[in-house]
Design brief:
The structure is a homodimer. By secondary structure, chain A is an alpha/beta fold. In chain A, strands 3-10-9-8-7-6-5-4 form an 8-stranded parallel sheet. Chain A has a 6-stranded antiparallel β-barrel with strand order 11-12-15-14-13-16. The first copy, chain A, has helices spanning about 15-35, 50-55, 65-75, 90-100, 110-125, 150-160, 180-205, 220-225, 245-250, 280-285, 350-355, and strands at about 5, 10-15, 35-40, 60-65, 80-85, 105-110, 130-135, 165-170, 210-215, 230-235, 260-270, 275, 300, 310-315, 320-325, 340-345, 360-365, 370-375. Chain A has 2 domains: about 35-240, Alanine racemase (TIM Barrel, Alpha-Beta Barrel), CATH 3.20.20.10; about 255-375, Lyase, Ornithine Decarboxylase, Chain A, domain 1 (Beta Barrel), CATH 2.40.37.20. Chain A is elongated. Chains A and B meet through helix 5, strand 11 and helix 10 of A and helix 5, strand 11 and helix 10 of B. Chains A, B: Keywords: Lyase.
Chain lengths: ~375, ~375
């Protein structure tokens, strides 16, 4: 199948395959140069076809954010997964079912309470489920403090004594999303590395195993200069890119591989508005760039070939209406787009915008549609 | 099927059927008292079962925001629909297919360009597609200015001369969402009514038909005191309710019929945080209450029975992590919730949170799950 872009029903999600492949290759080469394994996070793409481009092999390794993703990628042949969200004991039967199907699915936790429940489950089921202890890289979310060796060791002992496998530690330097300066980002990556190595050292000093030392976020993965002591890096947004990551500096606007195709459905000429059929339902409510130096509204507007119009944004959005206008203060001219004309909108956040859609329309180098790739949403 | 609530996998979307029915009945009685038809907007619920509770009969009338909704509800037996988003001529074949199936689907437009395209299509296809001219109630989005009789009449003539059916005018007073005072809301409803009546009068004075005069938004529907000259009201959020509408005053917090069920997956006790497995993917990125007098974060936290904890909010969210904490400045105490405990989260915006889910788990008066109702997302 090869179809012209302008025959697609709108709004819909487009994926530029060449940009995706270039983004995947850039991160792979960067991390190979640093001597670590890339374990791509598939929470952004949620697509088997994209995963196969990002992963080192069709069997993995990879990271997922939901058990539904784990089930989907396991069914698609991925055999090495981390479910990167703290485990609730009630979810262990689903984990066990995925593992019984032949996929080495590891889980994550950060408390003695969870470790005891997982150990109990491991002993009762006879499945030594592998566990990574989550370590708090920068205070932004979950995890044991990296210098809290007592808690790390207590969790590790509860796991191994219970019958689970202590596979290592994992961190996510989420605070790097608030940075912009390359030196500060490199420092955040080094901070993440040191926290991981410190936590791994505490386990090993107590005679506990820690074969995996896993870190990751797209900004720290991109700006890391030394990953000594780290075995693998998890990152996900880099594959698709978005305006928020462009604001951080992790990707260039010209690398963003996803966009929303929209059709002009009206004008309010006195106000300088073009109305399109992509509202927040198609773009998501994510306004991540509002906190950055350059606020991109609900998205940056491009022509059908994917070239940004100067300073043209989706400045506001209702559920199924987007309001396109020139950025406040800019002297750019509103393009003359008739009813029925189509545009492409680069999103604030690829994870959030992607989740509003159930498929990608895949584009070749001439912006023709060559395939439809399904996405897996939900839990 | 009747299941206890705490056996559901999390995160998932809950629907309190008694509250839904009470919300539907309250709006129906209010508008019946004002002598107008209620044409519920199904863009919030996106569910046939909810639609049947909200509609006057299983055949309608109703409003939809996407052609996929139109197809879904038409397949479910609804025979009287308005697709409430300005039409793109490329969508007319899909409209025609729905109409050919026996559903009286009307479309909306606000330009001569669209009217000519629709007229041409109507003549070519032999189907006199019914059209409502969108009128701009308050400058917030699309629509012809209500006092621009020349444009209204030109559009009306292009439609009728082309072969389409001019069915009337429609407005949406979206600016009412920014209000809070009941008197100001009643004034916004009156402003919407006057704009609609003015536009209808311009068409009729030119000898054009205008049998339908359609207005609507949940706040103006709720606070309207007189709807003389209006034939029908569209509203949608009122069925489910949300924290944003509670901030406007259109619903009470105790009327909110949707919530997200989540499980505790961690603690950061030194920070006063409880980590749950409902992040922005389950709650949506909608932070509508951030602009209101009371900012409810990513949602208000309730116990399993649906009773709000004092001042307990989802204060921040990552993709699959929610951070639950006491509202800043409050002296409320963080509840003692163990790993595995479940909570319910009332959302900022029912339309946005609902769209993150593909089904409702329906609760009876004792918070037991009695049914699963599918939702239709996408376009």
């Amino acid at each position: 199948m090869v179809e012209p872009l302008d025959t697609l029903p709108t709004p819909c999600l487009l994926l530029d395959e060449a940009r995706l492949r270039a983004n995947a290759e850039r991160m792979r080469a960067h991390l190979a140069g640093l001597g670590v394994t890339l374990r791509p996070h598939l929470k952004t793409a949620k697509s088997l076809e994209v995963g196969r481009i990002a992963m080192a092999s069709p069997t993995g390794p990879a990271t997922v954010s939901t058990l539904r993703e784990a089930e989907f990628f396991a069914a698609g042949g991925v055999r090495d997964l981390i479910y990167g969200v703290g485990i609730a004991p009630t979810k262990l039967p689903r984990v066990a079912a995925i593992r019984a199907g032949g996929t080495d699915l590891a889980i994550v936790l950060d408390s003695l309470e969870q470790a005891e429940a997982v150990g109990f489950h491991a002993r009762a089921s006879g499945d030594p489920v592998p566990v990574l202890i989550e370590v708090d890289a920068d205070g932004h979310r979950s995890g044991v403090a990296p210098d809290d060796g007592d808690t790390l060791v207590a969790i590790g002992r509860a796991l191994t004594e219970g019958g689970a496998e202590l596979r290592g530690v994992m961190l996510h330097a989420g605070d790097s999303y608030g940075l912009r300066d390359p030196e500060a980002l490199a420092a955040a990556a080094e901070h993440e590395r040191l926290a991981a190595v410190t936590a791994a050292g505490a386990l090993r000093a107590a005679g506990l195993p820690c074969p995996v030392v896993s870190v990751g976020s797209t900004p720290t993965a991109r700006f890391a200069r030394d990953l000594t002591g780290i075995t693998e890096v998890r990152a996900g947004v880099y594959m698709l890119g978005d305006l928020f990551q462009a604001g951080v500096g992790s990707v260039a606007v010209g690398d963003i591989a996803v966009s929303v195709l929209a059709t002009v459905i009206g004008h309010q000429r006195a106000k300088g508005w073009i109305i399109v059929d992509a509202g927040w339902m198609a773009l998501s409510r994510d306004r991540g760039t509002a906190r950055q130096a350059v606020d991109q509204g609900y998205g940056l507007v491009c022509d059908l070939a994917g070239r940004p119009y100067p300073d043209l944004l989706v400045t506001d959005a209702n559920q199924e209406h987007g309001i396109v206008a020139v950025r406040a203060g800019s002297d750019a001219v509103l393009p003359d787009l008739a009813i029925g004309a189509q545009i492409r909108i680069l999103p604030n956040h690829a994870c959030a915008t992607g989740a509003q859609h159930d498929r990608y329309h895949v584009l070749d180098g001439e912006n023709r549609v060559t395939a439809v790739w399904p996405r897996i949403n939900g839990w």
